[in-house]
Specification:
By secondary structure, this protein is an alpha+beta fold. It folds into 2 domains: 145 residues, no CATH class; 66 residues, no CATH class. The chain is built from 4 helices and 12 strands. A 5-stranded mixed sheet has the order 4-3-9-10-12, covered by helices on one side. Strands 5-2-1-11 form a 4-stranded mixed sheet, with no helix packed on it. The protein binds FE2/S2 (inorganic) cluster. FE2/S2 (inorganic) cluster binds next to helix 4.
Length: 235
């Protein structure tokens, strides 16, 4: 497999995310339940298929989600500060009767799905109830940061959505902000100095330029009111 056909995201020092291998790019938007908690992701747009493209990492591009070179003019400092360890190395565990929940708080992007239906911890603690089990699995699958993973207690296997490799530009209209890039389907992500992060089914990359856990999103886009120009996020 050549470099051009291999699916991979490469981070440019103080620059964009370079995407190789014809990875589909879509836009997903959060919808709420009746109690106004984030409930599910709805597809809003599919971008034209491209073999290679560059996604903005600094938040300053005029052509978001794509890079237009403005990181150079804005003197963007994109230093990668995330821990270089596996997800489980820093995850706490909650044991329920049917499910186990692992929780790596470092990865939280504050999307807020985990608060629904009394909270995922409570649901896992009552996972011998079929509805609680089902809701906990849904919530974990919607946790785009990959902070939360539920595991079947009997098989000790993670219960994950079946994602094909793809990237989603996210919008969080219930918070009035644009969200991170949701990388799905275990696409390798290579740092600017050549380190390959653990490939996972769900992770979110910062595209506002302000995360303290780069390259991953840490929710700072909510506090700073990041807006990529999408009309739907205006309250
Ligand atoms: S997109 Fe930058 S902190 Fe979330």
């Amino acid at each position: 497999m050549t470099e051009k056909t291999k699916k991979i995201i490469k981070i440019v020092k103080n620059g964009p995310f370079l995407v190789y291998g014809g990875i589909p790019l879509i836009k997903l938007i959060i919808s709420e339940d009746d109690s106004r908690y984030p409930y599910e992701w709805l597809e809003k747009q599919a971008y034209p298929q491209k073999e290679e493209y560059a996604l903005c990492r600094c938040g300053q591009s005029e052509t978001k989600p794509f890079c237009d070179g403005n990181h150079e003019k804005s003197d963007f400092k994109g230093i990668e500060t995330a821990r270089r360890e596996s997800y489980l190395d820093n995850a706490k565990e909650i044991n329920g009767p049917d499910l186990i929940l692992t929780d790596n708080h470092d990865l939280c992007n504050h999307a807020g799905f985990c608060d629904r239906a009394g909270g995922i911890s409570n649901l896992v603690l009552h996972s011998d109830d079929s509805q609680a089990r089902k809701t906990a699995i849904e919530i974990a699958g919607n946790c785009n940061s990959g902070r939360l993973v539920v595991w079947d207690k009997e098989t000790r296997k993670p219960i994950e959505p079946d994602f094909q490799p793809s990237i989603a530009v996210t919008e969080e209209p219930e918070k009035g902000v644009s969200g991170p890039l949701w990388v799905r389907g275990a696409i390798p992500i290579e740092s600017a100095d050549g380190y390959t992060y653990e490939a996972r089914n769900r992770v979110t990359l910062c595209r506002c330029g302000k995360s303290s856990n780069k390259p991953f999103c840490d929710g700072t886009h909510i506090m700073t009111g990041f807006n990529d120009g999408d009309e739907s996020i205006k309250k």
